[in-house]
């Protein structure tokens, strides 16, 4: 899937939850999807304009550009489903922490331990944030059956955070010896 298509998927997906302004789409992608997906702000507004020109979304009839609310059209929902059904392409990983640790012999044990301690702290903070989100989603599942799908992504994040904590602990022990 191309970069343009993944941005389109994120924007259409955000609008499938509810109609929102461009600013709210940007916030939803950052605050909600941001736990597992990042999107360039510079891509969101041009994507909204393109999706509108292709009649996949419509802007509120008030004619304002600033603060306008966008919503999916039926063809926009069809396009979103088509994008969701496309095969997933694995993106090559880019992990600055691992890159630094791979060349850790140049930094020395203490700097590498500091990198690992920081990585562990980030994972602990991420796990705490995801625990709170999970609690909220579990409360929503009775009223919103789609909340369980969002819960699946939170579970993945929790497992990843726990794995990162275990990895950091094991690595710190390795460097201690």
From TrEMBL:
One Pfam family linked to the record: PadR
Lineage: Bacteria, Bacillati, Actinomycetota, Actinomycetes, Sporichthyales
Residues in Transcription regulator PadR N-terminal domain copies: 11-80
Matches recorded under InterPro entries: Tscrpt_reg_PadR_C (IPR018309), Tscrpt_reg_PadR_N (IPR005149), WH-like_DNA-bd_sf (IPR036388), WH_DNA-bd_sf (IPR036390)
UniProt protein name: Helix-turn-helix transcriptional regulator
UniProt cross-references to Gene3D superfamilies, sorted A to Z: 6.10.140.190, Winged helix-like DNA-binding domain superfamily/Winged helix DNA-binding domain
Domain Transcription regulator PadR C-terminal: 94-175
